[in-house]
Each structure stands twice: as C-alpha cells, then as structure tokens.
TrEMBL record:
Primary localization class, coarse: membrane
Keywords attached to this entry: Cell membrane, Membrane
Protein name, UniProt field: Putative membrane protein insertion efficiency factor
Domain of life, source organism: Bacteria
HAMAP family: UPF0161_YidD
Membrane topology: Peripheral membrane protein
Gene of this entry: yidD
Location within or outside the cell: Cell membrane
Function comment: Could be involved in insertion of integral membrane proteins into the membrane.
Protein family (similarity comment): Belongs to the UPF0161 family.
Taxonomic lineage of the native organism: Bacteria, Pseudomonadati, Pseudomonadota, Alphaproteobacteria, Hyphomicrobiales
InterPro entries in the cross-refs: Membr_insert_effic_factor_YidD
Length: 121
C-alpha cells in the first residue's frame, strides 16, 4: 500500500477517553457496561446531558482512570448532578483523587465534580 506524504494520521473515532489505563477485569467490565449502554439505551434516553463530557463518557473515563469502585461512584454521582437543579457545563474527571475519598466511604465521592471540592490537579 502506498503512503501519501501529506496523509493525516487516523483520528481517534471513539467518543470515550483514549488515554492509557490498566485493563484489569473489573475496569473492562465497567467500561464494557458503559459502552453497552452507549450503543443501546443511550439513543432512547436522548441527548439531554447538561455537562461536557456527557455522563456516559464521564463514567467510562472515571472507571478507566480510577477503577470500578471509585469510578462507578463518580459516574453515579455525576448522573445525579445532571438532574433538575443540578450543575451544568464542563465537568471533567479528576486526574487524581484526594486521600479522604476512601473505598469504605463512597458517599464522599459526591463532593467530586463541578463547583465542588475533593479533587487535586
């Protein structure tokens, strides 16, 4: 096959986070469920997310970056923030989580997000 000298590299065609993450069984299962939702039910729910990235993209990235437990809680609380009276706008997944976000205290993950504390970086 002939490579054209002015050809552009192939663009990432996925709507989900493409950064490096450990492909552990739990993370693959979690991101797989989010992807299944995106391919099936998302079309019926409609394009009503008030944030960028969308709630499913946020959940995918949160699970990929922070694991199924922490990322799952982050994703759940993000969906809850998206409802009436909730936040809106750009709300990215934090690169790192603070030390007070322990596995045994999942309610603390509510603080992470737009206009809330709990993130570093």
């Amino acid at each position: 096959m002939h490579d054209h000298p002015h050809a552009k590299p192939a663009a990432n065609r996925s709507r989900n986070w493409a950064g490096p993450w450990p492909r552990t069984p739990a993370r693959l299962a979690g991101t797989g469920l989010v992807r299944l939702y995106q391919l099936t039910l998302s079309g019926f729910v409609g394009n009503t997310c008030r944030h960028m990235p969308t709630c499913s993209e946020y959940a995918y990235e949160a699970i990929a970056r922070h694991g199924l437990w922490a990322g799952g809680w982050l994703g759940l609380f993000r969906v809850l923030r998206c409802g009436p009276g909730g936040t809106h706008g750009i709300d990215n997944v934090p690169e790192r989580l603070t030390a007070d976000l322990a596995w045994w205290a999942p309610w603390r993950y509510w603080r992470v997000g737009k206009k809330r504390g709990g993130t570093v970086g």
